[in-house]
Amino acid sequence: MSCRSGVRGRFLVLFGDSFNAGRVMRQRYYIGDIGDYDGQEVTLEGWLAGRRSSGKILFLQVRDGTGFIQCVVGRGDVDDEIFEELAALPMESSLRVTGHVAVDARAPGGFEVSLVGAQVVSAATLEYPITRKEHGVPFLMDHRHLWIRSSRQFLQLDTPILTPTACEGTTTLFETNYFEESAYLSQSGQLYNEATAMAFGKVYCLSPAFRAEKSKTRRHLIEFWQIEPEIAFADLDDIMDIQEELVAEMVGTVLSERASELGILERDIEALERVKPPFPRITYSEAVELLNKAGHSFEWGGDFGAEDETVLSRQFDRPAMVTRYPRAVKPFYMENDPDDDRVTLSVDMLAPEGYGEIVGGGQRMMDAAQLEERMREDGVPIGDYQWYLDTRRYGAVPHGGFGLGIERVVTWICGLAHIRETIPFPRMLNRMRP
Amino acid sequence: MSCRSGVRGRFLVLFGDSFNAGRVMRQRYYIGDIGDYDGQEVTLEGWLAGRRSSGKILFLQVRDGTGFIQCVVGRGDVDDEIFEELAALPMESSLRVTGHVAVDARAPGGFEVSLVGAQVVSAATLEYPITRKEHGVPFLMDHRHLWIRSSRQFLQLDTPILTPTACEGTTTLFETNYFEESAYLSQSGQLYNEATAMAFGKVYCLSPAFRAEKSKTRRHLIEFWQIEPEIAFADLDDIMDIQEELVAEMVGTVLSERASELGILERDIEALERVKPPFPRITYSEAVELLNKAGHSFEWGGDFGAEDETVLSRQFDRPAMVTRYPRAVKPFYMENDPDDDRVTLSVDMLAPEGYGEIVGGGQRMMDAAQLEERMREDGVPIGDYQWYLDTRRYGAVPHGGFGLGIERVVTWICGLAHIRETIPFPRMLNRMRP
Q: What average pLDDT score do residues B344-362 get?
């Protein structure tokens, strides 16, 4: 799961011309690794955590989740316009800075970056509510989604199960009484992950999720476990790269360390050995065409069901990523595709051999006003989500993530016929015992 | 968490004469390590998984959770009485065997054990319901707590959150509607762990737990995470050894790998450096005496509250283990102390510096009839727990485990004033937001 990578150009050669999507992965720098870049020029992405001014020089404290770094910029080092913007930028705005790394004994972390360029990603739209003054505990707990950005917190990224709101639609919720209020069992930790990603940059949770779906299929559990990474400063391509890396790594590890168990299960090893990047990347529209070409009639606009996914995933010899689903079939938080406003920057990964969806994710909507409008359209109760909108009001950044269903991946890797084999005590429709 | 240990004698020298409990840890052998013992005599503990007979020789397949091994015993190698007992022993009975390990190319695992002695721990009281014949899926899913013992299952030890029954008392349960039936949010994975421990020997779950407690203290979360190990063929002393090892290892790892974070938190490092085995081990009765000597009046028979634990834990400079609580303050599944029927083979670990309980556990009641009687006394609905009683009907073994509260341990290690600091989005009395 490490996003730290050396300089590498990787061209993805995919299946058939129409799926070609050659691209070079960009170099990512993190403050936690700054010692590796002494004397070099780096570009850092993060949030403004502090600022001092000494005449014509600004000292900016920048945080990116892996650490804090002092950035120094003198008037004349950058355009006057950007210098003035930096001098007045509200705390917790998001920004991208480029400069030279140098050892500096006076700097808090032992290194300093002399800026040659800077770009504001999203200026905080309000004064940041948490300041150096003393705040009462109720105030801080109400702003927990922002308070976690302070360095005083211990890094712990569990997301709550009991929540006052729904994440993935309201029809499949388990409800309980939380001291005279209604609470719902979490369907996903994602919304909370978005808040922790703004604090720590790259986060994930590994947690049970609950969906009271009345479907009785080989792929559905009522209670299942998900791993959900969320990454700040990431676009759809980054999300796909990480999905691909994670799934290939999981399969590779099982192949090398659990060969005897795969033998007991009589798993077709060759099918797993093909699970190597690059995975095919196709759009939803291309997938609809593929379905129809395969004689499986499907109309553009609907969501893929288990059968559609089975047909689709049989077209490929390794996991395939389907991108850009229509807005109507994805939740409110998906970012719009700037090239086609009918679709979203979403991506599902389908496991081969007919297994279907194992990962769902995408790029999240970044703009607060647009997100609020989308929520109103979808009938989401805005009042309950003020904390979530705060993640866009204070230093919004392009970000995204995904959820990987543990039991579905195990079903596929083990080549099992039914998901109930993958968890000791499965919870299914009409099955809560033992 | 590995229980594999070389031969080691360890004498515990504790605080003051009354706490002395010198003892030598016994050597444990596991089938998974059998290759290390070629030519040696070993004692294995496990369950009878298969048997063939060839005239005057018995071939026994023994399973202990780490693997399967073939044990060979000829008439005359052991007492006639035990030979006859082995020849007729029902499948899934638990047993202890001693013999010589030797390479044998014909044996399934490449090794074989020639027995010189054997002891039945608990003969299965009924014919084992899962046989070589084909069983229907509903039958197998109803017997999921036994079915997991077959080697075909993938090792996965999550315990369910949604359960039809309560584990730790019914007053603090969250209830929800599970397809027209009542379900409760898990308070502990322990009962399920006991079933998986009979399948895999040593297991643990890491899972959220829920207690609708109306207490508003610095130590209580409504929703918290626990790590819960459960070990087959373990007594109270084994459980304490593992608790001690685990907690010492956790503190040691934080000290060596997170020194800078402890610095940010201004933690007293010396207090943590003292957290080395042996930890003091005192009985509940000794603890009551200590409390009264400290001028904190406490009557024998009650449960320790947060304040009592604070006073107690201040008597020690490292975590202390309090054993043998009265029956009335511990759940129905705790084993009786054979030396004093007023108390149970239970153990809580109290963190020093006033932090109080971080671990609770003990040895579980082994005898099915006694357990059922205890359940009736406590008003536990027997019908819902038939699956749990099955763990005693088919190859009962001495076993035990404990639950370690992640956030409580983090609170203590970080030296925090309140548990709410240790989880990103704490759920407390009157706090479900954000």
A: 97
